[in-house]
């Protein structure tokens, strides 16, 4: 049976667990292929059929994998022209980010390290520069995130979480910091989609209460406290994501597939 023809359980045996669809596994293989071949933004990939042969997957599953990677901004499909590696979204457009592996622990942890540096400094600056309107926006989004957490509303929490971190970025009055936060969140969303399937990696309530504490520090103008609370918030996220990824990867079963095929050089 070709790789990706069936879903693979993502939790331990005996649990009613979500499954990783075959196309997501093939999408992961395709990102690895791009990195191994050192393909850069703008480089053309083999045809859909060619990729299916390289990855040892069916053409239908390969097509779905291409769609999901296009949806998260990793591939660009141009009618009549072919499939290309897409440019990294955001102002921090660096060719090296084209090889970010959203299902690889090492890459995800590096991204979270960077996020901690950027967002703690952003909170520090926001505490000294936020206008009254910006302070209210930060506080309101923090309150909404906690309310969504207490209501166990994952989608509402995710929206409020994004609004909170963006509001802190706005209050820092630094377009580069805000752009960095946007880029980080876009890359992290690839991990959410391809590996975590939108699952919240830890306690929404803990995160919501941390949002409130950060908002209060910014409102009081306590720059060092705001930065420290943001570092703790991101550190909590780091441990939760790390545990979630380890649990998921540890319990993943290998798909029933024949011997792996040796990758071929891409058509240019």
Structure description:
The protein has 268 residues and is mainly alpha-helical. It contains 9 helices and 4 strands; from the N terminus they run E-E-H-H-H-E-E-H-H-H-H-H-H. It has helices at 22-36, 48-55, 59-71, 105-129, 132-150, 154-171, 175-196, 204-219, 223-251; strands at 8-9, 19-20, 75-78, 82-85. The strands form 2 sheets. It has a two-stranded antiparallel sheet. The protein has a two-stranded antiparallel ribbon with strand order 3-4. Helix 5 packs antiparallel against helix 6 and helix 5 packs antiparallel against helix 8. It is elongated, with a radius of gyration of 20 Å. Mean pLDDT is 82; it is low at 8-17 and 253-268.
Q: What are the defining features of this structure?
A:
268 residues; mainly alpha; two-stranded antiparallel ribbon; 4% strand; elongated
Q: Specify the structural class.
A: mainly alpha
Low-confidence stretches: 8-17, 253-268
Largest sheet: 2 strands, antiparallel
Give the overall form. Answer: elongated
**How many strand segments?**
4
The strands making up the biggest β-sheet line up spatially as 1-2
Using the CA coordinates, give the radius of gyration. Answer: 20 Å
Instruction: Kindly report the average pLDDT value.
Output: 82
Strand content: under 5%
Question: What is the H/E order?
Answer: EEHHHEEHHHHHH
Distance between the termini: 29 Å
Count of helical regions: 9
Give the helix level as a range of percent.
Answer: 55-70%
